[in-house]
Description:
Elements: H1 10-15, H2 19-40, H3 53-60, H4 62-89, H5 97-113, H6 122-134, H7 168-181, H8 185-213, H9 218-225, H10 229-237, H11 242-257, H12 261-272, H13 282-290, H14 296-318, H15 329-332, H16 343-357, H17 362-386, H18 393-406, H19 416-425, H20 432-451, H21 465-483, H22 489-492, H23 501-504
Amino acid sequence: MTTPSPPASGEQTISAHRPWIALLQGLVGSLLILAGSLGVGWIANGSPMIRNTLVIALRTDGTGVVVSTIALTLGAMILLRSWLRLGQRLSQWGAGSLKQVVLAVVLWGAPLFVAVPIFSRDVYAYTGQGRLMAENLNPYTTGISALSNWFMLGTDPSWAENRTPYGPLFLWLSRGVVAITGAQPDLSVLLFRLLACIGVALCVIYLPKLAEFCGYNGARALWISVANPLFLISFIASAHNDALMVGLAVCGTYFAATRKPILAIVMVTASIAVKPITIVLLPFIGLLWAGKAAGWGRRFACWGATVAISALLLWLAGIPHNLGFGWTWALLDGTPGYTGYSPSGFGGQLVGSAAHAVGLDGALFEGGFRTLLTVASIGIAGWLVLFGDPHKVVRRLALAFAAVVMLAPIIQPWYILWFLPFLAATGIKNNWQIKVCYVVIGFFVVFGAQDQLFVWNFVDLPMATKALSYWVAIAVVGYLLLIDVHTRKLLFTKGHELAPAASLK
């Protein structure tokens, strides 16, 4: 590996010492998102906020909706540019850079903490699941529609009959939130955001340490995976429980890497008990426990002990309320359908169309292709568990997690944030790898900004909000790629291989 090249110009040398400019610009972007969320974010029908004079003006008048849409989209794009520029200004990743990245997470995340939920309204479903628990109904067998007044509390109708895919720990946390707030939607959102911020804080604390342990710069890893706008919006503004899941997983992986196996298993099991997908990490936690020089006997012993301890903890978590292992349905019976931008979804459509064109059953081939990718993801993960460099177990973990996520039929925008911290901690190089990261994060920020906008049906608009958001975002992307003298270099300039942490200090 090579040391990063020095700045190419005097301007870059100076700008590397002025991260506060990017920090302030990002704060402006977050404040614009906050303002825009009042007009087009998700407010529960039963919320007192819906009767606020300012909110009424923004939501019932076409001008207010248009201004809110532009503010939200422009704010997200400014936050994207600020993140890119912060990386350029801290390009040497020297002493003090970690402090600046942490400051960015705090400054940019603070306005999002009090924003109306955007990009998703799953947070209202969490309240519904807490209410099911409070009424002694099992969320693994009963949908939210069993509750009175469930729709007024903001839950998406798609959750009406769905079983919860979350683990027992998160269900008990949801029950606790409902006990404190009485299911008041706005207060519940804030408490769920607080839980999400605990996950963000765990990432901020342990991800740099994990990166340093793996031989890479902790500040850069944190900038890539936590300070990016998709992470901040999805895990703070949207209040997704994935934030807590990822934070516990990163923390547990660090403990495993630093030879604290029992604590590591407890933390990763807690992550599974929030959202079961992190069960993928357990075999790698066992490998880290076994050690680099372990033979097959010790590996199997550590795998067995890891599974036994984790299973015991999950069993104990499921005893109250008779939850049992009801969460396993989410692993064994996935959500039907696919997303068109996932490799499985897009590729399946191509295969189905090609089969149909030659007179074959397109639907059969399409489904077969997606099943093949799902099986392939399991095979790749299994191979990475059994084989590979024993000195790079965390990297193998990251690649296995990425394979399971990326080859699944459904990929929500925030799903890439599940494995991105682990990839960042084990080295994303300053070549095509970081460029792919820029493109993927930029794509999902643009997609999220126009995909989840709430507008009353009776509001008369000169242009559909999705189209307006799309064109605002595309205009900014065009500016970043073609006009901005700083950001246009990011995709069209040859990068350099990422250096080990020691050479970046």
